[in-house]
Amino acid sequence: MNLLDSQRVQALLDRAGAEPQAPLDSCRLFHGRGQCYPGREHIVVDFFAPVILITFFAEPHPDELPQLLDEVAPIMAELADTVVVQRRYLAGSPNEVVKGQLPEDWRARRGNITFGLSLQGQQNLGYFLDMEPGRRWLERGAPGKKVLNLFAYTCALSVVAVAAGARQVVNVDMSKQALARGRRNHQINGLDKRASGFLPEQILKSWSRVKKPGPYDVVILDPPSFQKGSFVASRDYAKLIKRLPELMPGGGEVLACLNAPELPEDFLSELFSEYCPGAAFVERLAPCDDFPDKYPDRQLKLTHWHLPAA
User: Fold this and answer.
1) Per the database record, which ranges form the S-adenosylmethionine-dependent methyltransferase domain (predicted)?
2) Does the pTM of the predicted model rise above 0.70?
């Protein structure tokens, strides 16, 4: 039995064959974490040309890695030359290059936009594939708008917004290193420097500095579910929501993201009802097709809210 979904592997090869000269978008090839593939819940496989990244969330059976390498061989023959294995079940989530050589300038690709990637002792590369519905939402809603991107990390959403014609995006994150990578992401895409700003702030303690560049037309709330000493979603998300009216007194659109499987979608609805009752729920964005999940309420939750003018 195949470990991977052979149809997804073939679909990638078909896309490459249909437009052989066109660069391929980065994508998730296999999402075992969604529990739709019994016995393979610990396996995730991503494609960031020319690299295939295999992530194990639990110790694999000795036969699993050799079998995965056999199953990605058709992709390796045409589209990739490197395989990296990340072992999330070990302390520090170590990475190992098991085939080929990691490119010095390794990037995720989305259409004509690229994003720098890094494996330097980190779990996350710097680009989240499952945020694609949010990127599409922002692409539609950002043109001509002033956007506040809270917990910006490497500013991928800002790159998408500026490329789509946002008037300005203000990126806020407590990590100066992450914002430096975000600034670099704007530079490698040749985007107007005047259209983006970067504030290294601990958000919950810096509302006056976050508010100062406003008012904003679009606000993105994309906090970590748990960041020791900084943010705990179950405790701190309410503090973000109750600030929305002062951040956007003229009203606007809010993308509220929640990546906490243990918290249901109703968690956000209840917080908005209590702390920002004027906001109207518009929709929960449909999840990315590359991330099937047996339990939708455990998936990344991307919700759109409309806040009327004060």
Assistant:
1) 28-301
2) yes
